[in-house]
């Protein structure tokens, strides 16, 4: 079953409660929360307090994607606000096993993210600890970028290592969603295309629409 996530990075934060209500009505399955530190990526975004606030107006799953140099420091901040999932990047040096164990003890699902240029082989020593993989289909840091279709070559390679749920984030619109789904990805995260759509329900449905 295709699941659609909306990136809060593209939402109107001045009217966030209305935005969340509208996204739920549109049929969005989960909210995707991009955390950027200004070091791992050239942008700054949100901290854990916004997740805490959002949970008061959002009844579905929240996943947190940490684009940070120091997940060992940042993960505990987000554990306190209890999102459904937390992912960080294979490109950073951290004790992946230890962090995964901490999350699982708290009932939070751990995931690993991988950037477009990164070879899948980097996942191999650590993938056993994780419960999902987030494939970045743009170079992270900013919304509104063009989908990099070559990342879909990673799907089969990852599946051979471990058969995990796969998520994809970056440039997801109606056409790129078809490509991702044909490759075997069932969890689609969309920012600008979905959140800034005039008709979000129609946009959400288009991401789940029939394969052409």
Tell me what the structure shows.
This protein is an alpha/beta fold and 212 residues long. The protein has one domain (3-208): TIM Barrel, CATH 3.20.20. The protein contains eight helices and eight strands. It has helices at 16-26, 48-54, 71-79, 96-105, 154-161, 174-183, 192-195, 200-208; strands at 3-7, 30-36, 61-67, 85-89, 109-114, 132-136, 166-169, 187-190. An eight-stranded parallel barrel has the order 1-2-3-4-5-6-7-8, surrounded by four helices. Strand 7 (166-169), helix 6 (174-183) and strand 8 form a beta-alpha-beta unit. Helix 1 packs across helix 8 and helix 6 (174-183) runs parallel beside helix 8 (200-208). The protein is globular.
Summarize the structure in short.
Helix content is 32%, strand content 20%.
- The secondary-structure element order is EHEHEHEHEEHEHEHH
CATH domain fold name:
TIM Barrel
Low-confidence stretches: none
- What is the CATH C-level name? Alpha Beta
How many strands appear in the DSSP assignment? 8
What does the largest sheet look like? 8 strands, parallel, barrel
**Residue-averaged pLDDT, rounded?**
94
- What shape does the CA trace take? globular
Summed up, the domain count is 1
* Alpha-carbon distance between the two ends: 17 Å
- Count of DSSP-assigned helices: 8
Helix content: 25-40%
Strand order of the largest sheet: 1-2-3-4-5-6-7-8
CATH superfamily: Aldolase class I
Radius of gyration: 16 Å
Helix/strand/pairing category: alpha/beta
* CATH architecture assignment: Alpha-Beta Barrel
How much β-strand is present in the residues?
15-25%
């Amino acid at each position: 079953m295709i699941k659609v996530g909306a990136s809060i990075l593209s939402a109107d934060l001045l009217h966030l409660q209305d935005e969340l209500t509208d996204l739920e009505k549109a049929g969005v399955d989960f909210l995707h929360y991009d955390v950027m530190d200004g070091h791992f990526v050239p942008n700054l975004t949100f901290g854990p307090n916004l997740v805490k606030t959002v949970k008061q107006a959002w009844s579905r799953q929240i996943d947190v994607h940490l684009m940070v140099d120091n997940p060992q420091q940042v993960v505990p901040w987000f554990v306190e606000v209890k999102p459904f999932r937390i992912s960080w990047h294979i490109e950073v040096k951290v004790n992946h096993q230890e962090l995964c164990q901490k999350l699982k003890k708290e009932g939070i699902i751990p995931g690993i993210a991988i950037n477009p240029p990164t070879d899948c082989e980097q996942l191999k020593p650590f993938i056993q600890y994780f419960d999902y993989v987030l494939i970045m289909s743009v170079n992270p840091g900013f919304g509104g970028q063009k989908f990099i279709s070559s990342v879909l070559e990673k799907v089969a390679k990852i599946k051979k290592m471990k058969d995990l749920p796969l998520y994809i984030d970056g440039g997801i619109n109606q056409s790129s969603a078809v490509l991702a789904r044909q490759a075997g990805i069932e969890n689609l995260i969309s920012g600008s295309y979905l959140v800034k759509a005039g008709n979000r329900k129609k946009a959400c449905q288009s991401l789940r629409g029939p394969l052409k």
